[in-house]
Design a protein that fits this description.
single chain, 513 residues, alpha/beta, Isoleucyl-tRNA Synthetase, Domain 1, 2 domains, six-stranded parallel sheet, four-stranded antiparallel sheet, elongated, binds 5'-O-[(L-methionyl)-sulphamoyl]adenosine
Length: 513
């Protein structure tokens, strides 16, 4: 079985500062990427910026900047966000790079060769903000303006010569493909949405524009630029050195295991992208996972609505692990979810400070005081010790399965319950009460609870990498030791080395904070 895993985020429009919605797509993808690393996979995790098109050209003009110069600056803010969010991405692609240009031109030429492209005239509705074409029945009038029903953004009438992709001929093949690959679109509610849309029959897709120039020119007809979505989607293979399909990176990593995206861009990824690839005789990705929206005041957070929560502000105030944990614990991954500062504080206090953080702090300070600051060895585990450890170990296949199906909320729920159970075990076992009359029992309790802290920390590591790394380094785990298979290994602790001090992991947040 291949031990390679390729996961991507959407590439972001560098049209403004990154916001919480962008942070969310990236954090979610990072959690899955990190989990696969714990499973010993060679993970390729790609993110980047989507820099061409009318939206960016307009925004650059508004700022009196040349589009490339504008993108250079803003793309940098997205690149530095990867550091602030503690993403483990090993590539960052910009669609203005040479490697990408080459790849898009080759894909275009393949579609010409396969007979899937023709020249005609487009007339219809276009939203610059979404960079999307809409049918008459997909728009409505709000306050006298024509807007897209799905995104609410303004549309304008466009009439221009355009190349078309023969999407209409792919409806049947796509439906067959969805049928053969029931896990291609997740969650299943999104899959049904897409199938319904394709079943209605697909129209050919306009894939070039002539009314502006900021894009990749169409080969042999440079007054056209390639439609920004055809350009952008190709990033996923540009990063694998496409068109060289014989190179190791492409062979190891394509088809991608999962594209993590927001539900607003599902159609592009689950309909257009596999159709382009099938037409070009390339494999479609294995999965597209469409998450819901982060809402603020019950509305999608977006620049145009002006209701943005700035991830950087929250990170500066509370910390990155705290934000990562909150976003994925409180928002159900496939659905929309509202976030608020009040819930964020409660979540940090209850789950992180009082539960996991407090458990680690109590156990390690007890060991410091009572066991010469070394992890004790155990003589013989009692039934309750075994129960605690085995409950987690027996759940491991289930947990792995949940993560492989992007069922992140259920995963977290189970792991947090282990942490509650561990706290309860520590309280009920009362090592302080037996330390004089039965020191061996005390040692066994401590051995057990440290094993459990190790196991919980490994499972939480993809979500809160900083805090868990601190805890695991106390018990001599280096980053490379943090692996799922260490959960079943009760002999991997060092009992001879004195433990370092564990600094406070999560500060409790007072109400006026
Ligand atoms: N450039 C395209 C993607 C091209 S991928 C080949 C794009 N960019 S975007 O910057 O507008 O959005 C990127 C991602 O952020 C999308 O997955 C989108 O769903 C996500 N989010 C933007 N606002 C969001 C929320 N309020 N909530 C959650 N995610 C949302 O689309």
């Amino acid at each position: 079985m291949s031990k390679n895993f390729y996961i991507t985020t959407p590439i972001y429009y560098p049209s403004g500062k990154p916001h919480m919605g962008h942070a969310y797509s990236s954090i979610v993808a990072d959690i899955f990427a990190r989990f696969k690393k714990l499973e010993n996979y060679n993970v390729l995790f790609l993110t980047g910026t989507d820099e061409h098109g009318q939206k960016i050209q307009k925004e650059a003009k508004k700022n009196n900047k040349d589009p490339k110069e504008f993108c250079d600056e803003l793309s940098e803010t997205f690149r530095s966000l990867t550091k602030v969010l503690n993403l483990s991405n090993n590539d960052f692609i910009r669609t203005t790079e040479k490697r990408h240009h080459k790849s898009v031109v080759d894909l275009w030429n393949r579609l010409v060769t396969s007979g899937d492209i023709y020249l005609d005239k487009y007339s219809g509705w276009y939203s610059v903000s979404d960079e999307a074409f809409y049918d008459e029945d997909e728009i409505e009038i709000v306050n006298g303006n024509k807007v897209s029903k799905s995104s609410g953004s303004n549309v304008e009438w466009v009439e221009e010569e355009s190349y078309f992709f023969k999407l209409s001929v792919w409806s049947k093949k796509l439906l067959e493909f969805y049928n053969k690959n029931p896990q291609f679109i997740l969650p299943s509610s999104r899959r049904n949405e897409v199938i319904k849309f394709v079943e209605k029959g697909l129209k050919d897709l306009s894939i070039s524009r002539t009314s502006f120039s900021w894009g990749i020119p169409v080969p042999k007809n440079e007054k056209h630029v390639i439609y920004v979505w055809l350009d952008a989607l190709t990033n996923y293979i540009s990063a694998l050195n496409f068109p060289d399909v014989e190179n190791k990176k492409y062979k190891d990593y394509w088809p991608a295991d999962v594209h993590i995206i927001g539900k607003d861009i599902l159609r592009f990824h689950a309909v257009f992208w596999p159709a382009f690839l099938l037409a070009a005789k390339l494999s479609p990705p294995k999965r597209v996972f469409g998450h819901g929206w982060i809402l603020s005041d019950e509305k999608k957070m977006s620049k145009s609505l002006g209701n943005i929560l700035d991830p950087l502000e929250i990170i500066n105030k509370y910390g990155i692990d705290q934000l990562r944990y909150y976003l994925v614990k409180e928002v159900s991954l496939g659905n929309d979810g509202s976030i608020s500062m009040e819930n964020l504080k409660n979540c940090i206090n209850n789950d992180l400070a009082n539960n996991y953080g407090n458990l680690c702090q109590r156990v390690f300070s007890f060991i410091k005081k009572n066991c010469e600051n070394k992890i004790p060895k155990s003589k013989r585990l009692s039934i309750s010790d075994k129960q605690l450890l085995n409950n987690l170990k027996n759940n491991l296949p289930k947990l792995i399965n949940l993560m492989n199906n992007q069922e992140l909320n259920e995963y977290i729920k189970i792991v947090v319950s282990f942490s509650f159970d561990a706290n309860k075990y520590f309280n009920d076992s009362e090592p302080w009460a037996v330390k004089k009359k039965d020191p061996d029992r005390m040692k066994t309790i401590l051995f057990t609870i440290v094993q459990q802290i190790k196991n919980i920390s490994i499972l939480l590591n993809p979500i809160i990498p900083n805090a868990t790394k601190k805890v695991l380094s106390i018990i001599n785990f280096s980053s490379n030791d943090i692996k799922i298979d260490k959960i079943n290994d009760d002999n991997c602790l060092n009992h001879d080395k004195e433990l370092d001090n564990l600094e406070i992991l999560f500060n409790k947040i007072e109400n006026d904070n």
